[in-house]
Structure formats: C-alpha cells, structure tokens
Amino acid sequence: MSAAAKRPTATLAVGGVEIALSNPDKLLWPKEGITKLLYVQKLAALSPYLLRHCANRYLTTIRYPDGITGKSFYQKSCPQPRPDYVHTMANEGIDYVHLNSLAALMWLGNRASLEFHISFEQTDNPDYPSEWVLDLDPFRDEEPRIMEAASIVGELLESLHIKSIPKTSGATGVQIIVPLNRQLTFEQLRAAGQFIGEYLSKAHPRLFTVERFVKNRGDLIYVDYLQHYRGKSIAAPYTPRAREGAPVSTPLTWDEVRRGCTPKQFHLLNIEQRLLEKGDLLAGSLPPQNVGTIISFINKRP
C-alpha cells in the first residue's frame, strides 16, 4: 500500500453527498490548535452567512495546503477534478466556483481554502453594484487608530444622511459598506469615493490619505475608493483570514467601533457565539441608501 493511501481521512456527509476529508488532523492554524477537521466544522457553522454573501459573485480563494505557516496561492479557476455537486460560473475565460451550497464550501475547505474573496460586481447585473464600499487600509499591521478613523467616516456619511455598516477586513483594515438600490454605476461611486477621501484627507491630514503609492503614505490610513470596481474583490463577510489568531471578517455595530474594538477580537473560535447573539448585521439591517446627493454635487462642480 502506498504512503498516500495510508494517510488518515474522514468522511463528511453533506446534502446527500459524501466528501472525503484528507488529513483531518493537519494543523491549519497551529498556535490556535485549529485542525482541518475543526476548520470545516467552523465553516459549516458559518455557511448560512458566508454562502449568502458569496451568492452571485465571482469567487477567489487563497489556499494554504500546509496551514498558515506554509506557502499559499490564489485560485480563481475551479480546482480539478470537479465533482458534480460543485457548480461554476464563467467570466472572461475563467470558470469560477459558484459557492452556492454547503457541499461546495466543504469541498473547498478540504482543499485548505482558508480565505474567500468575492467580486464587487454581481453576475446578474455587473454594472450596477448593490453596495458602495470605502476601504480603510492602514499602513501598520496593528493600527490603533483604525476604529477612530472608521468612526469619523461613519459620522461624515451620517451628516450626509447616508447610513452605513462597518466591517473588519479580518486583517488590519475596516470597510464601510453602504447598501444601494443598484441605480448607480461603479464609475459614479468611484467619483463619490474620491470626493469623500479627499475631504477626509484635508479635514484630518494626520489621519487619512488618498495617496496611491504606499511609500508616500507614511503612517496615514489610506481611503481606498479605487478598490470598489469591476474586476476587483473584497474579503467576503465572515471569511476566515490566514493570520495568527484565525480572525474572521466581521460586520460591526457603530457602538463597537466607538468603543474601540479591534479586528482580532472576532475569530473562528468565537464567531458562532457572536452570530447567535447579534445575527448577520449585513442582512437587510439597512434599507438602500441615497448617494445621489453626492453625485449631484460632484456633477455641479466646475
């Protein structure tokens, strides 16, 4: 019998199909003691939320075959061979996994897909997004001012009668998400983002910047309005991140932001309890917002 045949496996029964889980005892987050088996169990608990936000989006995963301390690679094309229960969506010559079932999620988890990133455009109407996103990207791995910065952005939007939801990226940043009724284009929203970013940089020059080149930003927090565009992606709500502590990209309340919570507080070992207590803060918690006033003001400028 070959060495490969002797490797331990487990069998997952999911939605009428059986998935062989290879190396279930392999440590994916060594310091946290998260094995592959525990990881797919946590993915199953996250699946109602993760699948909701990955629906009708082009999916990119980041795979870590030997855990977060090993090598990694991005994967857009669906891994092969593909079982019948995993569906794909084609876009610009790439067959993306259509993450629309628990079985597909478990299959990706078995392949050590530790991060799930989704396209900003949706497959049914790619030119008109369902949200507007401002990405606050700090220079430092641990930025103590990130929640202060997020709070300032939220208050500015509120002053414009625009409600928003903050979300940790799961890494170092925070994303401010504004739900829309899909009547504005990416181009219009990019102009609105530039307007907001430039205003913040002038009003708070020691905190914000819209400088595109990292080497010129110093220790300022970058207001990335360019990222929100077709062909680009965002860490999906509730995706784990391949970082020490096993953080999870988590929607927040503005009270939590004002109290100075940190992205590291929300991780694979406590996210289930949080969801039981608060539910999905992004699931219809706000009606579509009117960003048209910003667009109108921009269009009237000489």
Structure characterization notes:
- With 302 residues, the protein is an alpha+beta fold.
- The protein has two domains: 10-122, DNA primase, PRIM domain, CATH 3.90.920; 131-300, DNA primase, PRIM domain.
- 27% of the residues lie in helices and 24% in strands.
- The chain has seven helices and 15 strands.
- The chain has a five-stranded mixed β-sheet with strand order 11-12-10-14-13, covered by helices on one side. It has a four-stranded antiparallel β-sheet with strand order 6-5-9-15.
- Helix 1 (36-54) packs across helix 2.
- The longest helix has 19 residues, at 36-54.
- The protein is globular.
- The model has no long low-confidence stretch (mean pLDDT 95).
Secondary-structure blueprint of this entry?
Layout: E1 9-14, E2 17-22, E3 27-29, E4 34-35, H1 36-54, E5 57-63, E6 73-75, E7 87-91, E8 94-98, H2 102-110, E9 113-122, E10 131-137, H3 146-159, E11 165-168, E12 174-179, H4 186-203, E13 208-209, E14 221-224, E15 233-235, H5 254-258, H6 271-278, H7 292-300
Parallel strand pairs: 13-14
Antiparallel strand pairs: 1-2, 3-4, 5-6, 5-9, 7-8, 9-15, 10-12, 10-14, 11-12
Helix pairs in contact: 1-2
Q: Structural class of the secondary elements?
A: alpha+beta
Could you name the ranges where pLDDT drops below 50 across 5 or more consecutive residues? none
Output the CATH class name of the largest domain: Alpha Beta
The helix count comes to 7
Average pLDDT over all residues: 95
Largest beta sheet: strand ordering: 11-12-10-14-13
Q: In the CATH hierarchy, what is the architecture of the largest domain at level 2?
A: Alpha-Beta Complex
Instruction: List how many beta strands DSSP finds.
Output: 15
Global outline: globular
Share of helical residues: 25-40%
Gyration radius, rounded: 20 Å
CATH superfamily of the largest domain, called what?
DNA primase, PRIM domain
Proportion of residues in β-strands: 15-25%
Sheet having the most strands: 5 strands, mixed
Secondary-structure element string: EEEEHEEEEHEEHEEHEEEHHH
Domain tally: 2
